[in-house]
Amino acid sequence: MKDSVVTGDLTGDVTGDVTGSLTGNSAGVHTGNVSGNVTGDLTGNVAGNVTSTGTSTFATVDVNGGAVDGTIIGATTSAAGTFSTMTTASAAITGGSISGTSIDLSGQTLTLTADSVSGDSIHGGTISNFASTGIDDNADQTVLTIGADESASFAGAVTVTGDLTVNGTLTSIASTNTTITDNTIVLNSGESGAGVTSGTSGFSIDRGTADDATVLWNDTGDLFELKVGSAYSALTVNGIIVSLTGNLAGVNTAAVLVKVTGDLTGT
After folding, report:
1. 218 vs 224: CA distance, rounded Å
2. What pLDDT, on a 0 to 100 scale, did the predictor assign at position 123?
3. Is residue 34 within 8 Å of residue 26, measured between CB atoms?
4. CA distance linking residue 22 with residue 38, whole number of Å
5. Whole-model pTM?
6. Rounded-to-integer distance, Cα 206 and Cα 188, Å
7. What is the pLDDT of residue 206?
8. 201 domain residue, yes or no
9. Cα 245 to Cα 258: distance, rounded to the nearest angstrom
10. Rounded-to-integer distance, Cα 206 and Cα 210, Å
11. How many domains are contained in the chain?
12. Rg (the chain; Cα; Å)
């Protein structure tokens, strides 16, 4: 030993502080402070703080207590991590994926921004026993299908509790039996003019390849018209009671009780 410099191998116990650079292997139990650079292998247990101002590389690190604070793990090269329990406090998991396990959010809130769910994350899967305010899904098959053209198709019955507003140009009903509770059906709703702007309003009966039959209100003549195609059609009734102003022409085979003002021609 010369001028506090040890050259060569040192075998035995060293008690006290060692200040300076240690080059070579140091094996054994070290008690006390070691200040300086350590180049070589360090084998054994370290009790106390290890402060590194450069880069320290460890092949395997087993941290059984304490905390790792103020740093980023995997900042340069990411790798897989295995956690039996991971607890975060206002932390964010960015990038990568979580797979092969379930996520328990009991009592918590999962917030997704727009377009956060994409690909086949839900498509082809099953959402069951899911209930929340406004949503109750207990289906065992596909009930709602949303098309690429933003259309929606329901496979089963649909019940609307409340008003149903349809804003479109066509409403098609293909049901076999249609039941309407309302005792008054309003046609030409929303008319802003003093009459039927289109001239007529009423019902049309589809007769396939034959001309349609219509019951129309003719706003120009202020009268109802029964037509097949463009031609007027006959009305057959068991009896009719009318107040007639004008001319009545033709053959009348039914009972007619009428107050006539004008000419009455026929049998």
Report:
1. 6
2. 52
3. no
4. 5
5. 0.44
6. 20
7. 94
8. no
9. 10
10. 8
11. 2
12. 45
